[in-house]
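Q: Start with the shorter request: fold the first protein.
A: Done. Sequence, then structure:
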Amino acid sequence: YQAVLNDMQWLGLDWDEGPDIGGPYGPYRQSERFDLYREWAHKLVEEGFAYEDHSTSEDVERERELARSEGRRPDHRAVAERAARDGQPSIRFIVPPDRTMTFHDEVLGDISTDLGRTPDFVILRADGTPTYMLAVTVDDVAMEISHIVRGNDLMASTPRQLLLREAMGVKDVPVFAHLPLIVDDKGKPLSKRWGDVSVAAYRDQGFLPEAMLNYLALLGWSLDDHTNIFSMDEAIAAFDLARVNKNPAAFDVTKLEWINGHYIRAKTPEELAHDLVPFCVAEGLAADTDEGRATLATVAPLLTERMKRLTEAPPMIRFLFERPAPDDKALKALENQAEYLGAVATALETIEKWTTAEIEAALRALAEERDLKPKKAFQPVRAAVTGTLVSPPLFESLEILGRDETLERLRSAI
């Protein structure tokens, strides 16, 4: 429950009334509304729309098997009348077998359901807890819900909810819109209990809230025929149920990463530094200090073109916070490079001003002198100073690191 609220807040989706805020239609947690559900269940019994059912699960299963073999719908009312009268009963709603329920869906069009095969359904369990069918219908009525927008896996429940609304004496019908489900690359519907499909999981993987919101809005809907990047305000202004697709929407992590990269590049250095702090701290870097934040703000412009996720930053900039041991690829790049790195150190020692431009000029002059292509010339330097072959641009990195630390690392590598 709290995780859902946290995810909504992280995405920037707030609410005018609801849990922790209140409002005229509270309480806003169903567990606090059980008395209202029970009151309606018993009222429906009194008015002849439902009945008490003392049958056991075994009784119900026997009737289902018999009905299946006879090609009819289960007669739960007959079972209930035969059942023993011990204990607290559940309450079942009576489904008229001769009804056809029709409603209009803003996405799928007109939907008709013949209720001839729909059995009476439980609205209140024997332990006094409501079923989804009763709770959501009572809530929709009591809270004067005008639009019911949900996944199309719940469309089958709509005729029964309309029956309940009729029995409650409600004549108006809300606007229904059943949205396409989100599926994986194999076409299987995603579940909040399967894999990394919670909002929090993607937050922890380095996705920005504005990117996540932008991408989620594109799943089953489009602003127009060509726009992929838009703000929440633009989505709100343009949203129309008429543009919702009928077909399932495939969750494409590659596209999400592309959108995330766009929002990363749109950040100011200070904003990106702020967003990177928790990811760097999680990797053991002392980023949550004035000095650490300043370092992040300085290096941030060098990272924007190299990141699709914020989690990619800590490995690239670890060398700015500590002297990392070279990884395997860096060690290979350092093989037989002692003499060359000595020449690099000598060239860098002679630089008058420790700037990106002068560092680049000195290293390129040395490479030209030795007839080395850039990769051969600069890879050993990167390996010696950063401990890896994947880092921000070399010359800028050396300027940020500083003259003394750069020379010390070169000597250590030698």
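Q: Next, the second protein, separately.
A: Sequence, then structure:
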Amino acid sequence: MEHVVFFPAPDGSPAFRRVPSLDEAVRLVEHLRNVEGINDVGCHALTEVPMAFRAYYRVEVGGDTGSPVEQPQFADAVPAPVVHEVEPVEQELVSASANGHRVAGANSLGFFA
């Protein structure tokens, strides 16, 4: 199985070398460390990824037909939202100190009362 050894090149750019076996990858890593003094080394196994091909058909219209092809207008297909007008409901202010009971002349919410 093929392996790839990644290491920094002398100019600092990333470099790699493909080798046909793990034994050769180990020898290359040893050489990079012992002879060239490179510590930042990575070794990865290359395995085949299974793939399958499927038939794919694409229809193309050739030549000038004389009239432009109209594109569907999707924005017009969305209906406009329906808006209903609601009459405001008048509510009487109730003092918080009244615990939900109506009190004559209540004009404060009672937070600081």
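Q: Describe the second briefly.
A: Strands lie at 3-8, 14-19, 42-45. The radius of gyration is 39 Å.
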